Amino acid sequence: MTELLAGPIADRHTALGASFAEFGGWNMPVSYAGTVAEHTAVRTAVGIFDVSHLGKVLVSGPGAAAFINSTLSNDLTKIEPGKAQYTLCCNDRGGVVDDLIAYLVSDDEVFLVPNAANTAAVVAALREVAPADVEIVDQHREYAVFAVQGPESAAVLAALGLPTEMAYMAYRDARIEIAGRTVEVRVCRTGYTGEHGYEVLPRWDDAGDVFDALLAEVTARGGQPAGLGARDTLRTEMGYALHGHELSVDITPVQARSSWAVGWDKPAFFGREALLAERAAGPARRIYGLKATGRGVPRADCTVHAEAGGPAVGVCTSGTFSPTLKQGVALAFIDADSGVKKGDEVVVDVRGRALTCEVVLPPFVESHV
User: How many CA atoms lie less than 13 Å away from 169 in the CB half-sphere?
Assistant: First the structure.
C-alpha cells in the first residue's frame, strides 16, 4: 500500500482538529468545524484552505512562453507578464489530461500549477516535445499554496502587508516580515470558490509561519480554516469543473463547456485537430446543472432520465447539498440527442428513488470573484 503524501503543515491541521481523507495521493484535511459552517464562512466572511498538494512546475528557457502556447489549450498571448490564465493540457483525442493555471512571468518563464495527481502526466507530456533549451522542473515540494477566500480576504492579506489591489487572474510577488524574518510569497487573485479571493504561494519551508499569520487574521474577521468538503460544495455551486468528474482524459472541453479555455485560432496545441472536429460536428453530450425540486440530493454517478421509468439520457458527475440554496444540486452530462434542454425537468435515480430536478446552466449562485 502506497503511503499518502503529507503537506508542509500537517501538524497544524491535526492541532486544529481536522478530519482527513486521501485525495490525489495526499492526506488532506476534509473539515474542521464542519463542511456547512466552513462553506458559510467563505460565502459570508473568509476561509483559508491549505491546497499545497497542488503541483508546481517551472518552465524556463528561450521561448518558454511560446512553447507553452504551442502545447496547452488557452492562448497565452492574450495575457501579459504578471497575469495568470486557466488552461488545459489535452491528449490527441481532445480529452483533458489536466486543467491548470499558467502564470506568465516572462517570454522565457512560465510557472504552472496543475492538479496534484496529474502533475507527473503534465510534466511528461511537456518534456516529450520540449526543445532542448527549454527546461521543465517539477517543483511540487518547493512551494505551499494557501487559498484565502471570501468577502474579507483582501482585509486578511492587507493586514500582513500583502498586495491585494490586483485585477482578477493577476499576481504579484512580495516580501513580508513574518515571525521575525523576511519571507517571499507569490499572491494571485485566483480561487476555486466563486468568492473574491487570493492564492498565496510561500516557500515550502516558510509555510507554517505564513499559515499561522494568515489564520490569525482570518479568525479575527469571523472566518475559519476550511477543508476539501467545503471546497467541493463551493466549487459545485459555481459549476466549476473538477478533474476526474467534469474533465478527464475521456472528456473534452467541448463537452464540459470549457471551450472558452481553448485558443481556437492558434495553429498548434495538444488535441487541436480532434477538438476542431468535435466543435464542428457538435459534441455527443454536454454538461448541465441540475437543481432538485423535490427532497433529495443527487450524487455523482446517478443516472438521469427524461422522465420516471424512461430511458437514461445522462449521468451526474458531481452532486451535493447546496448550503447556500438549501437544496440538492448536481452537474451532469446530458446526451445531445435526448432533446433535453435548459428549463426542462428530468428525473435522477438516487439509489432507486426518483428525484425530480430542473435543468439549468451553472453557476447555481452568483459569482463575486
Answer: 15
Phi, psi for 96 (deg, rounded to 5): -100, 110
CB 76 within 8 A of CB 68: yes
What's the CA gap between 327 and 318, in Å, rounded? 14
What is the reported pLDDT for 2? 74
Residue 33 pLDDT more than 90? yes
1: confidence class by pLDDT, cuts 50, 70, 90: low
- DSSP assignment letter at 170: B
Which residue's C-alpha cell is 487570493?
Answer: 198
- What amino acid occupies position 366? E
| The one-letter amino acid at 316 | C
| 22 C-beta neighbours (distance < 10 Å), count | 12
Determine contact, residues 183/202, Cβ cutoff 8 Å.
yes
For the chain, the distance separating the N- and C-terminal CA atoms, rounded to the nearest angstrom, is 41
User: Rg (Cα) of the chain, in Å, rounded?
Assistant: 21
Could you give the CA distance from residue 205 to residue 248 in angstroms, rounded to a whole number? 33
Residues 6+ apart with CB under 8 A from 272: 266
Rounded to an integer, the average pLDDT of 49-54 is 98
Q: Is the pTM of this model over 0.85?
A: yes
Q: Are 348 and 303 in contact (CB under 8 A)?
A: yes
The mean pLDDT value of the chain amounts to 97
104, 76 contact by CB (below 8 A): yes
Tens digit of each residue's pLDDT (9 = 90 or more) over 156-183 = 999 999 999 999 999 999 999 998 999 9
Phi-psi region of 346 (alpha: psi -120 to 50; beta: other; left: phi over 0): beta
Q: How far apart are CA 349 and CA 94, in angstroms?
A: 30
Q: State yes or no: pLDDT of 238 exceeds 80.
A: yes
Mean pLDDT for the stretch of residues 86-101: 98
Residue with cell 495521493: 25
Q: What integer is the mean pLDDT of 348-365?
A: 97
* CA 111 vs CA 64, 101, 225, 243, 361: distances in Å: 10, 8, 27, 20, 32
H runs (alpha helix) in 253-296: 272-281
